[in-house]
Amino acid sequence: MILCVLFSGGKDSTYALHWAIFKGFKLGKLITFIPERDDSWMFQYQNVKFTKFQADSMGLPLTFINTSGEKSSELNDLRRAMSSCVDEGMDGVLTGALLSDYQRMNVNMIAQELNLRVFSPLWRKNQEEYLRWLPREGFSFIITHSASMGFPHDLVGKEIGEAEVERIISASRKFSFNPAFEGGEAETFVVNAPLFTKKINVKGKTSCKGDSCTFIIEKVNLVERVI
After folding, report:
1. Per-residue pLDDT tens for 158-181?
2. Domains and CATH numbers, the chain
3. Lower Cβ count inside 10 Å, N or C end of the chain?
């Protein structure tokens, strides 16, 4: 079975394609949506244009889809993207959905219309266990955006390891936000993963206002991995 991947460059969609490869699926292409606004209901906004470096590191084809980010029209953009998967002979769609019923419902609805199977390997997984698993298994990511009271905002722009994961989990318990960020508490960008042939080196700057911080990537390059 050949899958197209709804890919934001964050930890969840990167984990999903890792899962798919090790389950024996073939990946037809990655699809990254580029919203015009930062409050898209469906798609990640911060730094998604840099997924091309992740795709290069994994040797996978990537398609960018521009979308208004408007709730009324972005589903049509999703349908257009998934239709292209059918046209190119793919059988299913892969998502990194964790808990969002809105996202999962709409992907499943469109997939059913198009006779595509949907795979969401992270759906309803234990959020804390999943977050701890990532650095242990070789996934490195940076926080590119945080938007929750009590989130350790000093981690924005930093590479997250096991110690940082424990800080996030501790804060999530105290301030009652989702530790894996499915409620929009934070967004991520993966810089290293088991399927990457090269690590992604990023440079940028962090801007904060109130309980919201954003890391703006300004420069990206691929570097040799240290095994």
Report:
1. 999 999 999 999 999 999 988 888
2. 2-119 (3.40.50.620), 127-224 (3.90.1490.10)
3. C
